[in-house]
Design goal:
Length: about 375
């Protein structure tokens, strides 16, 4: 005689792994709203929340959520050499520092009417690094997004020299998803400097300076000519080049660094579904953004992954080719954009979208089970 057992729930474990919805919701708030939507439909499911960052601005906040850290505060010289109060995170054992170059040399630290990458500097970044080295850190993990600079990292190098830290043995891992070379048409000046306030004439001058710095570095025997063409050398106004040439840094995909810190592969191992998302998803999403990194890891593990974002631009079908479901949380919501961007509205739309999709999925599963049972 066979013993009847209860049918296991279709979703036993679901992982929600969102980036922030910039200007609207933090990654933590997005994950929480999605979890609430899941629990409303699947109360027995275990839901794991993993707020994520792609390694640019938000890296340190993300690390603080995932690891036990100690905050370190200090005053450094900002992009225009003005005093700036900044912080970074230290691992519990004091051996690793997690920092963002934007905390010391970010574009948001410069008023719009004063933005001029001919004048901005990465000196404060070097001061942050020197502070961590002085504390005995053996490794620095740095996000280099959101810079106000185009000085090829010369300011950073000067600050390290001023503090006798340039010849440090501290290892440096850089979160970088930019593949641009140091100079040229696709280099730091021509591609990024206009966003930092540079005029066409200033862009040309900046490119000349970047070339000159690379030439001097090569003449000193510090770098080979192909270092300037290394993918990411042009990141953060050429800071990537200085980190590569002078500190022998490792440039890695930001989201891969974050996913490794989050032990993502271990977390999703027994998951039935992963849900990810961001403020807006389009073709750029597949170029190193959070959902892209999540999707790749899920595909390798054979786990379905849904993409739920504030706005979706998938005219070419690229997103649909990579994700099992692609939906805007604002689908069929005709309210003005300003209203949709309110945090409480975005949170409710995430909850509603998740409830609707989960409900539809459960209905489909139930119908398929019934059809199999009845032999139809």
């Amino acid at each position: 005689m066979y013993q009847m057992t209860e049918t296991p729930p279709p979703f036993r474990k679901i992982v929600v792994a969102f980036d922030s919805f910039k200007g609207c919701l933090s990654a933590e708030a997005a994950c929480r709203a999605a979890a609430e939507g899941i629990q409303a439909v699947c109360p027995k499911a275990a839901v794991v929340q993993l707020p994520l960052s792609d390694g640019g601005e938000g890296l340190v906040a993300c690390v603080r959520q995932m690891l036990p850290t100690v905050d370190r505060y200090l005053t450094v010289h900002g992009p225009l050499m003005e005093p700036v109060r900044c912080s970074y995170a230290l691992s519990a054992d004091g051996k690793t520092a997690y920092m963002e170059m934007a905390a010391a040399s970010g574009l948001t630290l410069v008023p719009e009417d004063k933005r001029n990458p001919l004048k901005t500097t990465t000196y404060g970044v070097g001061e942050m690094m020197a502070d961590a080295i002085g504390l005995g850190c053996e490794r620095i993990v740095m996000g280099i997004g959101g810079s106000a600079t185009c000085d090829a990292g010369e300011g950073m190098l000067k600050a390290l020299r001023d503090r006798d830290c340039l010849d440090t043995t501290c290892r440096c891992t850089v979160a970088c998803d930019v593949t641009n070379p140091l100079y040229g048409e696709k280099g730091a000046a021509y591609v990024f400097a206009p966003q930092k306030g540079a005029t066409p004439e200033q862009v040309a001058e900046l490119d000349r300076r970047l070339r000159d710095f690379a030439h001097r570095t090569e003449q000193a025997g510090i770098a080979m000519p192909d270092t300037a063409n290394h993918p990411g050398a042009g990141a953060a106004g050429g800071l990537g080049y200085a980190l590569l040439a002078y500190l022998h840094a490792e440039l890695r995909s930001g989201i891969d660094i974050v996913l490794d810190l989050a032990r993502f592969d271990t977390t999703i191992r027994d998951a039935d579904l992963v849900i990810t998302g961001e403020g807006k998803s389009d073709a750029q999403t597949l170029m190193g953004k959070v959902p892209c990194g999540v999707q790749k890891r899920c595909r390798q593990a054979g786990i379905p992954v849904w993409l739920l974002s504030g706005a979706i631009d998938d005219d070419g079908g690229l997103l649909s080719d990579h994700f099992d479901r692609v939906h805007s949380i604002n689908e069929n919501d005709t309210r003005p954009l300003a209203r949709l961007l309110l945090p409480e509205v975005a949170e409710e739309n995430i909850r509603k979208t998740v409830r609707r999709l989960m409900g539809a999925e459960l209905t489909t599963m139930a119908q398929a089970t019934k059809a199999i049972s009845s032999g139809t």
